[in-house]
Amino acid sequence: MRAFTIDQYGENSLLRMTNQPLPEIGEHDVLVEIHAASLNPIDYKIKEGKMKFLLPYRFPLILGNDFSGVIVKVGSKVTALGPGDEVYGRPRKSRIGTFAEYIAVNEEEVAVKPVNLSFAEAATIPLVGLTTLQAFTEKLDLEMGQKILIHAGAGGVGTFAIQLAKVMGAYVATTVSESGYELVKSLGADRIINYRQDDFADLLRDYDAVYDTLGGAVLERSFQVLKPFGRIVSVAGVPNASFGREYGLAWWKNLLLAFAARKITALETKFQAEYSFLFMKPSGNQLSYLSNLIERNQIRPVIDRVYDFQQTEEALAYLKTGRAKGKVAVKMK
């Protein structure tokens, strides 16, 4: 099968199309012919070696973290799905590789594709959808009537997060450039801050939660907008020792994480806040929940560009510019 692989880590490492063996399936796996895949920042972070401390891989490595397609074969103990089923999903981190014509995944990591979405649209949902759902329900305990700040509202994660937060009954503030204003307004954002003109930390107070997709100084200033005992969850910040213990890392790695996150830990204490770093978990059941919201038109995918499969390297370079409004996808079919 054709697949986009890397042979080494590095900012200048080549992402090239190669021929790879067809994946073998276990008794609880399904083999999916991929029709579309979406691109996410974790793809170029893995490519550049920025995730190797947490995610060690062997080469050649097929990149890609979410997909949609059609099942062509199932393992001997798979009963709920069968050949011909249209599905979408996010494979577990040890089995990534959606920039390819086929992938083998555990049956519990896929769900039936929403009937009202194309394959390209469906492929943009799993990673951002599961990440956001788990952030809101498992880390932030977001409730109706609470106030949440969602950073980079016009991005791939932000466009989904605004919609899910509104479904959950929250008041949503978000940061965008002027070019993203109308988009986030159409998605239901209640307060929109142009980060090029104003500092959100000067304007917002007494928020229950912050969903951080940027890290760095933005994450650090976000503590200022929280009420006492407010919560921040980040998908782009510094993993801390609490994350390391939850993720089952070795003790020495937890010590390194505690040292790296010492500034964030100090901010937690200063502002009486709770900080979490999130690595999402694949879940077909949660995807089915999101499918229900999508089929009821409560959430819609937002796509900036769709590339052909052979343009995957170009698509990844475009995503890294940070200019995309919504998601970027590639289609195999």
Automatic annotation (TrEMBL):
- Coiled-coil intervals: none
MF terms (GO), sorted A to Z: oxidoreductase activity; zinc ion binding
What Pfam families has UniProt attached to this entry?
A: ADH_N, ADH_zinc_N_2
SMART domains given in the database record: PKS_ER
- What this protein is called in its record is NADP-dependent oxidoreductase
Q: Which SUPFAM superfamilies match?
A: GroES-like, NAD(P)-binding Rossmann-fold domains
Q: Which residues form the Enoyl reductase (ER) domain?
A: 10-330
Task: Name the domain of life.
Answer: Bacteria
Report the source organism: Paenibacillus faecis
Q: Which UniProt keywords apply?
A: Oxidoreductase
